[in-house]
UniProtKB/TrEMBL annotation:
<comment type="similarity">
    <text>Belongs to the ABC transporter superfamily.</text>
</comment>
<dbReference type="InterPro" id="IPR003593">
    <property type="entry name" value="AAA+_ATPase"/>
</dbReference>
<dbReference type="GO" id="GO:0005524">
    <property type="term" value="F:ATP binding"/>
</dbReference>
<dbReference type="InterPro" id="IPR027417">
    <property type="entry name" value="P-loop_NTPase"/>
</dbReference>
<keyword id="KW-1003">Cell membrane</keyword>
<keyword id="KW-0547">Nucleotide-binding</keyword>
<dbReference type="GO" id="GO:0005886">
    <property type="term" value="C:plasma membrane"/>
</dbReference>
<keyword id="KW-0029">Amino-acid transport</keyword>
<dbReference type="InterPro" id="IPR017871">
    <property type="entry name" value="ABC_transporter-like_CS"/>
</dbReference>
<keyword id="KW-0067">ATP-binding</keyword>
<feature type="domain" description="ABC transporter">
    <location>
        <begin position="1"/>
        <end position="234"/>
    </location>
</feature>
<keyword id="KW-0813">Transport</keyword>
<protein>
    <recommendedName>
        <fullName>ABC-type polar-amino-acid transporter</fullName>
        <ecNumber>7.4.2.1</ecNumber>
    </recommendedName>
</protein>
<keyword id="KW-0472">Membrane</keyword>
<dbReference type="GO" id="GO:0015426">
    <property type="term" value="F:ATPase-coupled polar amino acid-transporter activity"/>
</dbReference>
<dbReference type="InterPro" id="IPR050086">
    <property type="entry name" value="MetN_ABC_transporter-like"/>
</dbReference>
<dbReference type="InterPro" id="IPR003439">
    <property type="entry name" value="ABC_transporter-like_ATP-bd"/>
</dbReference>
Length: 238
């Protein structure tokens, strides 16, 4: 999926020859110290950040640099951020239907029907007519997941989706994500939630200083990491 991807911010080499394959239906957890390039990696995958070199493929198709083809492929990649990023002046329902109506040209009634089904699935159908600020953080993040799913993405990217949440709301979001994983969604998840990694992921990617330092199974990674760098990191978070 990613081949020799490189990215600089000025002199800073943020992504160094990143090779990463994510198979269909696979859940990959990306973990690592702050500043290691995890968010940049996520943003590069749907070209929110341009890359300097390498290739990103979604379902075998290289991601084009710009234009209509990019918009189409970008729709295949759903993204959920730490900070929810819902449109504040639109209701939850409008947040979820906007993309399908604008980008996928789904008729409004059909888009609303699908959106209600998705909101039901993430457990907040009764919040559909409210505005984001009227919801708890956990509800907003579930709305953001529903919004991403409404585009029928082939892969979902989550960048620390629970780290801005109060502890009691973490589980409700992780439960939705675990459900998605169980249904076979292809997912790349930046998180330090080990319970989720163990439950849902096939692969843990440990990233530091712009490099993939270690790729391992969750069980092995958390009990028997292979690299000193990963062991050092784990000793600080465990
Ligand atoms: P992580 O998500 O693992 O914490 P990031 O991808 O956010 O790491 O950041 C990787 C590095 O790139 C950091 O050193 C950060 O300061 C830098 N960086 C991120 N975004 C930008 C930007 N827009 N401009 C300049 N430097 C950036
Ligand atoms: Mg980050």
């Amino acid at each position: 999926m990613l081949e020799k991807v490189n990215k600089h911010f000025g002199d800073l080499h943020v992504l160094k020859d990143i090779d990463l394959t994510v198979d269909r239906g696979e859940v990959v957890v990306v973990i690592g110290p702050s500043g290691g390039g995890k968010s940049t990696l996520c943003r590069s995958i749907n070209r929110l950040e341009p890359i300097d070199g390498g290739t990103i493929l979604v379902d075998g198709t290289p991601l084009p640099a710009e234009g209509k083809a990019l918009a189409r492929l970008r729709a295949d990649v759903g993204m959920v951020f730490q900070s929810f990023n819902l449109f504040a002046h639109k209701t939850i329902l409008q947040n979820v239907t906007l993309g399908p109506i604008k980008v996928r040209k789904v008729p409004k009634a059909k888009a609303e029907e699908e959106a209600m089904a998705l909101l039901d699935r993430v457990g907040i159908a009764n919040q559909a007519s409210k505005y984001p600020a009227q919801l708890s953080g956990g509800q907003q993040q579930r709305a953001a997941i529903a919004r991403a799913l409404a585009m029928h993405p082939k892969v979902m990217l989550f960048d620390e989706p629970t780290s801005a949440l109060d502890p009691e709301m973490v589980k409700e979001v992780l439960d939705v994500m675990t459900g998605l994983a169980g249904e076979g969604m292809t997912m790349i998840v930046v998180t330090h939630e080990m319970g989720f990694a163990r439950r849902a992921a096939q692969k843990v990617v440990f990233m530091a200083d712009g490099q993939i330092v270690e790729v391992n199974t969750p069980d092995e990674f958390f009990t028997n990491a292979q690299t000193d760098r990963a062991k050092d990191f784990l000793s600080k978070i465990l």
